[in-house]
Amino acid sequence: MREFNEELLSFIDASPTPFHAVEWMARTLECRGFHRLEEDEEWTLLEGQDYYVTRNDSSIVAFTYPPCAEKGYMIVGAHTDSPHLRLKPHPLTESAGVKRLGVEPYGGVLLNPWFDRDLGIAGRIVYLEGEVRKEALVNISRPVAMIPSLAIHLDKEANTSRSINAQTDIVPIIATGEVDFERFILSQVAEDTSHLSLLAHELSLYDLQKGSFVGVNDDFIASARLDNLMSCFVGLHALLDSTYPMMLVCMDHEEVGSETHAGAAGTFAQEVLQRIGGDQYSVLMRRSLMISCDNAHAQHPNFPAKHESEHAPRLNGGVVVKINSNQRYATNSRTQGRFVQCARALHVPLQTFVTRSDLGCGSTIGPISSARLGVETIDVGIPQLGMHSIRELAGTRDAYGLYRVLMQLGDF
Length: 412
Prior knowledge:
Layout: H1 2-13, H2 18-31, E1 35-36, E2 50-55, E3 59-64, E4 74-79, E5 84-95, E6 98-106, E7 119-129, E8 132-145, E9 173-175, H3 181-186, E10 196-207, E11 212-214, E12 220-223, H4 226-241, E13 246-251, H5 268-277, H6 281-287, E14 289-293, E15 296-297, E16 319-322, H7 333-346, E17 350-353, H8 365-373, E18 376-381, E19 383-385, E20 392-395, H9 398-408
Parallel strand pairs: 1-2, 4-13, 4-14, 14-18, 15-19, 16-17
Antiparallel strand pairs: 2-3, 3-13, 5-6, 5-10, 6-9, 7-8, 7-10, 11-12, 12-20, 16-18, 19-20
Helix pairs in contact: 4-9, 5-6
C-alpha cells in the first residue's frame, strides 16, 4: 500500500495539468503493451490486443479487446481536470511597480489557500516555427509567481469577514523589471526564440509543493489535484492489473460542466464504444457497467454538522458509494448491490454518502455518461478533505481499497 501511494503522489507531481496527466498515462500504457489509436484513422482491432486513444491530449480512453461476451466492459470513469487558476490570453499587467499575470478561476476553486504559495506555470502552447504551426507542453517547475496576502495591519477583518474578489485580489506577481512574457514562455521550447511566434496558450498556475505523507503514523496523503487524479491513477492500475475486460475513460472539463468535445457530455467515449461494438453497440451497453470514480466529501472533524449523520464518510473508513435521489449521482440499487457484494467478498470496507437535504450536491461524470451511453452506472469515490483547495487531504488506505474492488468487480 505504501508503494501504491508513493507512485500515486509521483503521478500527481508530474501532472500539473490534464495534458501532462494524459501524457503520463499514455506512456505508462505503452510500457505495458497498449497500442495507440488515432481518431481520424480507420481501426483494425485484434483480439487479445490492448489499445488507447486520446482527444485534445487532455482526455484518454484505454481498453482491452474484445469485451466480455456475457458482461460487456467494466468501464471505469474519472476526470483529468481540477479547479485552478488559468492565465488569461493577454496576462501581463503592471501595478505598484511589479509585473503581474491576469488569471481566471477554472471551476469551483477554493481561493483562500492560493495566497503566499510558490507557483509554477504549466500547460499547452501553440506557436509558429517559421511558417510551421506546432504544439508543445510546457512545465515551468520553479517558483515564478506568487499571490501575496494583504497584511493584517491593512485589513482588520482578514480573519473574520473578508471576501475575495477573483478579479482584483487573486493576481500573482512575477517581476519588478521588464518582462517579455511571450519570449519567456517560448524559451521553454527553444533557446533561440527569434524564429518563434506564440499563437495561443492554455497555461495554468500550480502549487510547487510536492505530495507528501502526513500524520504521526503517516495516515494521510496530501497533494494538489487529488480530485480527481487519484481516481485516474486507481482506474489505470485496475485496468493494467485486472484479467477481466476493462475500459478506462478519463475525461477533461468535468469541473466546468463537461459540455465540451473532450468532456463526458461530448462524443468521445461513445464513439470509441461504437467503433468497438459496431452493430452490437446497444447490446454491449446493456451488458456493461460503468463505475464513475470521483472523490467524496469526508466528514470534517471541525464541521461535523455539515454531513447527514448516518451518511458521513471518514478518512480511511473505506470506499464511498454516492447516492442522490435527484440523480446527481447515477447509483441505483442494482449497481450498488453488485459493488457491495464484491467489496464484502474482498473484505474492503465501504461507506455511503448522501448529502444533507438542506445542502446542494456535487456532480460527477456518472449521470452524464450514463445518459449519453445508456449504460448502468454506480458513483463511488475516495473520501477526502479540502476538496477544491490548492492542497487536499485523503487517507492512505482508501485508494488501494478501491483499486482492489475495481480489479475484481467483473467477476460479480
